[in-house]
Amino acid sequence: MKFYTPDPNSDIRLMKAYKDEVANVYVARESLKFHCHPVEKYVDKWPTNPPSFRKSAAEYLTNVRRVEITLLGAISESLGLETDYIEKKLGGHYVSLNYYGACEESNLELTYGVRAHTDPTIITILLQEEVPGLQALSEGKWMDVNPIPDTVVVHVGDLLQAISNHRFKSLVHQAMVNCEKERMSIASYCYPSSDAMIGPPEKLIDSDHPAVYKDFTFEEFSEQMWKVIAFDDARLNSFKCSAA
Ligand SMILES: O=C(O)CCC(=O)C(=O)O
Ligand SMILES: [Fe+2]
Predict the structure, then answer these.
(1) Whose CA is nearest to atom 9 of ligand 1?
(2) How confident is the model at residue 1, as a pLDDT?
(3) For 36-64, what is each residue's pLDDT tens digit?
């Protein structure tokens, strides 16, 4: 338990399952979250048990970063922007190793892995092992996103929604638990640097697409996130052009 800390700014943090007394649900996820870019800066803080952990994590996370940059290049181009438009905004990278224990049948109805949310990221790359549990909201209905071997899932996060002036919408998703098998996943959260300007570029604003958001920095967004406890893109509301 040496990684357990209530400090949200810690470079590495173990988070336990908890009961949400207000909603009367149990959130079963246990996760180890840590900063991972650049790897050399943070690797000394990572677990040493099992002994292969640091090497395997460094290799995986370096490759994930490469995939992210390629994807962000393709996303930028699809928006008619320079290939490196989003890459230039990149800053940190945070990872969450998620563990969901199998649930007792009598508790299943009131137990979630993770409740419905969007990610406060540009994109998230999720690797699931073979046990299903991820669901995405599509046209008002929950859809299972079952694992496919050697395949990652890419979530659009709130910040890509803002940068793209709503051409991309952040994905509402949740993780369910089951009574038979524990489940694990690795979520890699891709963040801008604190001074990066988020908000739509001129090219994405016209009379058919008025600017949805003002310019704001990732630092301002992060401050806001601690003030408004929202689980979805309501985190962006105070940056809307129509906001008072
Ligand atoms: O474990 C999953 O399938 C989802 C995890 C997730 O949504 C997250 O870490 O943000
Ligand atoms: Fe998520």
Answers:
(1) 187
(2) 60
(3) 999 999 999 999 999 999 999 999 999 99
Q: Which bound ligand lies closest to the C-alpha atom of 185? A: 1
CATH number at residue 77: 2.60.120.330
**Over residues 176-197, mean pLDDT:** 96
Task: Note the Cα 84 to chain centre separation in Å.
Answer: 21
Under DSSP, is residue 125 helix (H, G, I), strand (E, B) or coil? strand
Tell me whether residue 223 is in a domain: no
Cα-to-centroid distance, 38 and ligand 1 (Å): 22
The radius of gyration of the chain from alpha carbons, rounded to an integer in Å, stands at 18
Q: Domain count of the chain?
A: 1
Q: Is residue 29 part of a domain?
A: yes
Tell whether the model's pLDDT for residue 65 goes beyond 90.
yes
* Any domain includes 225: no
> What single-letter amino acid sits at 115?
R
